[in-house]
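Worked problem 6 (solution included).
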Amino acid sequence: ATLAAVFTLLALKRRGIPLRPQPPDWKALRRLFAIGAPITFSGITLSMVYLATGHIVSLYGGAAALGAMGIALKLEQCAFVFCEGYGIGAATIVGQWLGHGKVQPARKAAAAAYRSALLCVIPGMILLCFFPTAVVRIFTSDPTIVSVSASMLRVVAAVLPFTALDLVYDGAMTGAQNTTYSLVSSLLWNPLRVPLAIILSESGLGLFGIWLAIDIC
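Solution. The predicted structure is:
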């Protein structure tokens, strides 16, 4: 992180944008807070929800289920990297088009970013859907974890297109400086994972119900 910061500062200096100590611009800071705060609160909400769902998974499935959840989330994060990259690209291009007052090109840019992200996650969908056991064995040889993981990975594969949609258009909304959408959707949907996980697991679906709750919301 330190080296990255140094290279960033050097790159800015070469572009004629040296960073010097200056008095705070309170108007700019208020605007930055208005844009950044919803994203921050969304991240905090998601982290708290994952702590709660992790506790539920541990209660219903023990250490093996918790290990399976960890592997599934790591694999899901691989898709997140691609989708968030296109989301950042969408934020940049959408912001530029809207800055010029051109709404239609901004919409087309967001749609193009989503199509590109979708193409990137399709190979992962195929692997997780049809070869979940082989994928899990890369991380562990524990037969219990391998068995428990398979069902969750298929659920992850099924929702990857919607994950791409969410992350890319979340980036597009950031470019449009409308991050309140992220906060509202996070506060509405993410906390529902906890009661839904309890309801579905108690309805006879067991761990599979918890996997559904985690990925549907």
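Discussion: Helices lie at 2-14, 26-99, 103-130, 132-136, 143-175, 180-189, 193-205, 207-216.
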